[in-house]
Specification:
elongated; homodimer; 208 residues; mainly alpha
């Protein structure tokens, strides 16, 4: 999908086909957010005005690019994981043995599939952390792009969370459910604080 | 850009090149949100369980697709508008006459450029309104996708606003500034209410 054109991807997402769905689209939203952090860092690297922060900004750039590429992988990763869950639902369910096997396979594929939105959430959270520094040390001419970065990364983090939760809701393994929630919930809580902080600074800089 | 691959677009956005920047990326984020509304509507059309709302959902689908295609155009439209502003900044500024001409051209191109994020904001707001109905009448199996739709449309609306504001900040024509603000500010205020309402309903449905 990532090698297809932007308008093909959008048409496929809009169509009556389950994939790409909300998980993949969240990964792409996060990748757009990461790309904006990279752009801001790219316009800060090598600028005399920002010479004191060159080393840190280079590190931010390398991390935002890592997040962007990971999120691009997850655009496809979510489609693959979804396909495996769908296949499990298509298993035969005539005999008791078949039913039991199908139930186990669905649970197994669903647990595996949850790894994808969890990873999307983790990458988006990292982008939020990078924005928290970029808003202070990045090229001030691109302050609105830091804003777009933080807004999209936050939307994508929450979108990933919805995909984690909807998958968890079909599972009976309560300890698995609690374990995964304990991973993503702190990211949401801390993420909202970073969003408010960064968005506040961006607005203060722009609307004078 | 829209005919290029997803990964080429993302690389270009991340690169040390001003376009695509935050305006174009916001338009694409909004298009992703609109695509999710279309998908939910597509999976509601023709379903017996939702026969009472068929006419309304078909209308929603047609509107979400209209928003998506308009936002796709604006992904490119923002790049073109930005290029015209940049060209104005490159005009000669040796003589007083040249300086005056350059100043006027920059203001003219900037005023024109603001039309793009204003239109992005208006399309994203429309997507939010569609989500407000879809969360109640759309296929419940895709409830998390309604959530992703509303989250991305809201992020994109705010991203568009940052691009409106940063362009307004360079203008001296105060009545123009106030006029444009009076267009976008109600969309933000009402948009936040819709976001809270829809996101609340989505969570209630998913996390039980």
């Amino acid at each position: 999908m990532i090698k297809e054109s932007v308008d093909s991807y959008l048409s496929a997402a809009a169509s009556r086909s389950p994939a790409p769905g909300g998980g993949s689209v969240s990964a792409l939203g996060g990748a757009l957010g990461a790309a904006m952090s990279s752009m801001v860092a790219n316009f800060t690297v090598g600028k005399k005005k920002y010479e004191d922060v060159q080393e840190e900004v280079k590190k931010i750039l390398s991390e935002s690019e890592e997040c962007r590429l990971k999120l691009e992988e997850l655009v496809e990763g979510d489609i693959e994981a979804y396909t495996r869950v769908s296949s499990a639902y298509s298993l035969p369910k005539e005999t008791d043995e078949e039913k039991e096997n199908r139930r186990e396979e669905i649970a197994r594929a669903t647990k595996e599939a949850i790894a994808v939105p969890l990873e999307i959430a983790s990458c988006c959270f990292r982008v939020l952390e990078l924005c928290r520094r970029l808003v202070d040390i990045g090229n001030k001419r691109l302050i609105s792009d830091v804003g777009v970065s933080v807004l999209l990364a936050w939307a994508a983090l929450q979108g990933a969370n919805l995909n984690v939760e909807i998958n968890l809701s079909s599972l009976e393994d309560k300890s698995f459910v609690e374990e995964k929630r304990s991973v993503i919930r702190p990211l949401l809580a801390e993420g909202r604080m970073i969003l408010d902080e960064v968005a506040g600074k961006v607005k203060k800089e722009i609307v004078k």
